[in-house]
């Protein structure tokens, strides 16, 4: 859904020149001391369902195939796609974070009702100091976001855009499909019907619960420096394709400690907010959707961002609590 939001935003905002080079160099975890890497590995190992991108869940005569996706194009998707294509032959329904119809609705809403992602009242430069606005403008420009257009975005939405490494922005908003879109294409070819796990405006509603000034404060203090953002992106890709899904989150926990100007309490609050709004609340809302689909269909495939799978608030654990038996098909 995050890639969908950012891609659809290009309908209503003109992007400046984006970064020329793909992310390169060592990953973030490669630069860490051994004891910190061990801390990440230990926390990841203790996470339920922390490894694996392709799972099967069974209950009675019903089957679910659950895919942890990456919303970015990458040739390394191919081996997993081969397995998914095989399982698509027996799938009779596909659930995605946002299928083509939901993306169409979102794009249409952005054009007809752009205020759904823009702030009411004064713009960002009117709400912050000149120094803060200049810093924010520079970070937007690095990611190809025209500052004066970005100045009207909801702070939470701008924060999502700024969470992307400048070197990765072109891939995110470019036309090449990520794994979720590749899976949807397989379903289309196999005449498998699709639906969305949630409405496109779900995230808007969740973030509307945060006061505007608090969103602006969070926006200013949680922008990763360009080199850190690039190395984090590389580590995220490496961990994803190695199947160490929970390590992606645990690495982010360590990375946020590198941000200047945040107290331990502020770091914890920021991570807790992201986990609650972007992962937990959505996961819990998806379970009834999945269960309803399983009543109507014998074999349902679910494709959602990989970070929705692990942990005690993850989709896999929540399904286990509902009596499903899980099997890891591919790390």
Description:
With 331 residues, the protein is of the alpha/beta class. The chain has one domain. It has 16 helices and 6 strands. A 6-stranded mixed sheet has the order 4-3-5-2-1-6, with helices on both faces. β1 (54-59) and β2 (62-69) form a beta hairpin. The longest helix has 33 residues, at 264-296. It is globular, with a radius of gyration of 20 Å. It starts with a helix and ends with a strand.
Features of the shown structure:
6 strands, 331 residues, globular, six-stranded mixed sheet, 16 helices, alpha/beta
List the helices and strands and how they pair.
Blueprint: H1 2-9, H2 34-45, E1 54-59, E2 62-69, H3 78-88, E3 93-96, H4 100-112, H5 124-127, H6 130-142, H7 147-150, H8 155-162, H9 169-173, H10 179-189, E4 194-196, H11 202-207, H12 212-221, H13 226-242, H14 245-256, H15 264-296, E5 299-305, H16 315-321, E6 325-330
Parallel strand pairs: 2-5, 3-4, 3-5
Antiparallel strand pairs: 1-2, 1-6
